[in-house]
TrEMBL record, chain A:
Record keywords: ATP-binding, Kinase, Nucleotide-binding, Serine/threonine-protein kinase, Transferase
EC number from the UniProt entry: 2.7.11.1
InterPro entries in the record: Kinase-like_dom_sf (IPR011009), Prot_kinase_dom (IPR000719), Protein_kinase_ATP_BS (IPR017441), Ser_Thr_kinase_AGC (IPR050236)
Keyword Kinase: yes
Top enzyme category: transferase
Protein's UniProt name: non-specific serine/threonine protein kinase
Every Protein kinase domain range: 24-306
Species whose genome carries this gene: Paenibacillus nanensis
Gene3D superfamilies according to UniProt: Transferase(Phosphotransferase) domain 1
Binding residues annotated for ATP, in chain numbering: 51
Domain of life: Bacteria
GO MF terms held by the record: ATP binding; protein serine/threonine kinase activity
UniProtKB/TrEMBL annotation, chain B:
Domain VWFA, first and last residues per copy: 1-86
Coiled-coil spans in chain: none
Organism: Paenibacillus nanensis
Gene3D superfamilies the record matches: von Willebrand factor, type A domain
Name this protein carries in UniProt: VWA domain-containing protein
Amino acid sequence: MTTSFKLELRRGSVVVGKWRMGRYRIERLLGEGANGKVYLVQRDRDWLAMKIGADTVDLQSEINVLKSLDKQRSLETFLYDVDDLYGPDGREYPFYIMRYVRGTTLASYLKQQGPEWFPLVALNLLGKLAKLHKAGWVFGDLKVENVMVADYGHVELVDYGGVTAKGKSVRQFTEIYDRGYWNGGSRSADPGYDLFSFAVLCIQLHEPKRLHALTKELLPQNRSTSELMEIADNCPGLKPVSGWLKRALMGEFADAAEGAEAWRALMHRRVTRNSPGMPGWLKGLAATSGLLLAASMGWLLLDLFL
Amino acid sequence: MKQILLITDGCSNVGLSPVVAAAHAKSEGINVNVVGVLDQGDVGELGASEIEEIARAGGGLSRMVNMRQLSQTVQMMTRKTVVQTIQLAVQKELKQVLGNGSIEALPPEKRGEVVRVIDELGETSGLKVALLIDASASMKPKLAAVEEAIRDLMLSLQARQGKSEISVFHFPGSRHGDDCVMDLAWTSHLNGVQSIFPKLQMAGTTPTGPAIMQVVDYYRQGQNDMSDYSRRARNETDGMMGDYVV
Ligand SMILES: Nc1ncnc2c1ncn2[C@@H]1O[C@H](COP(=O)(O)OP(=O)(O)O)[C@@H](O)[C@H]1O
Ligand SMILES: [Mg+2]
């Protein structure tokens, strides 16, 4: 559901966080999706990205994921600030500040720089997914719009709204990238789910029109991974990886690391031959796994009292 | 958690007001979501405002969509309502603790834990969704899309960690003027279900309100005597009891 989200911030206007008083100068809109708007902002001399949410709970849920990821990754922090702002309409909106990811979307990068960058960019993307998988997460909503590419094929994922702990139900997905949509398996978060979306993404990059046409012409019960494979098999740009794509669509890779290994091997072969991821009210909810939930509720209340 | 998801394309025209019926559902702890399906044109202003009002009375959400968006809408609405139901319960709890129930009023650093609990409960709580399908004549060409949306919903629900069940009803009943007929009793999978709506006779009136009441009744009965109900449902599908459900 696309939430109607009317907030517009003007270039040059200054946003001051309600709780933490951080000052951010709005530069421009970077993009928007179903859950919010992302602005390029400046704090002191730093360029940062500000995601403003339509819904406080949804956005917080995304922030929780980013926090856990920041704790796990020893490298660069991604999440800088969390606060609310007063919109020009007087309403309060939740926002968070993250690292500004430079670059362009995957599709336009390949258009500008040429298709010979595809194998490397794809490998780098598999590398990003592998890191998430290793930390116990699944990206979930992998699609062209959520992959940014910068110079020399450097890849960065944006939009952590679909990131799901392994074993839970995928929080957010987009139909054509969804394993369930193609009758290719469940919507449970496992590494194979991302690899399936990754395979669709490869097809989307090479044959967007044929993929789109396929979604229009097929009856739901006839959607299948073999229909997807057929597109891949008939696409010259995908021929070298068609075996790999089939394995990804069939769920044969344990995770993105394994997928990346196989991908790397393919690239190598190509290059050498020739060129070119509380108790009471709980019952009221008819909750099932009582113990676990009571425990987390306990922590919650404890936390609020402290 | 209990939900009714009504899929309709227009106005009710007989019996109890669907808005009143939805309010009854809510008082029983059942949230009512409504999807209005459009073909080319629209459901008309009356239909649109009724759809919105049913959802409001039923503590649920309403959306107008075309056929292509149906599966996605049904899936997202169900998910969103789960979060909202839990959010409400958590907020009630917070009110007792903090004197203020709104998550927005909490400082950002306190929200994280509350939302983590909401997410956890949303994933693990038991969930029942009764789908109530308007099968009046104008809906006939849309039933394939409806069936697809139901299958898609089942797929999403199966991925949850908590127990999830759906049941399916359509209205009006075909022969004896019943308000609604059960097509599928509570189930957690659709394996082996060839067709949810085998050769429906689409005819007559649109008793949306009475149909909602019957589903509320089904929920209520389910608490006491589930087996009796599914037996009747089985008889129903065998055609032995015609359209007699309640
Ligand atoms: N950290 C970032 N740096 C640069 N651009 C970003 C960043 N985060 C998001 N964007 C841009 O904003 C768009 C929308 O953000 P996204 O988080 O995907 O919103 P939604 O959750 O609503 O889909 C993205 O597609 C991307 O183009
Ligand atoms: Mg996005």
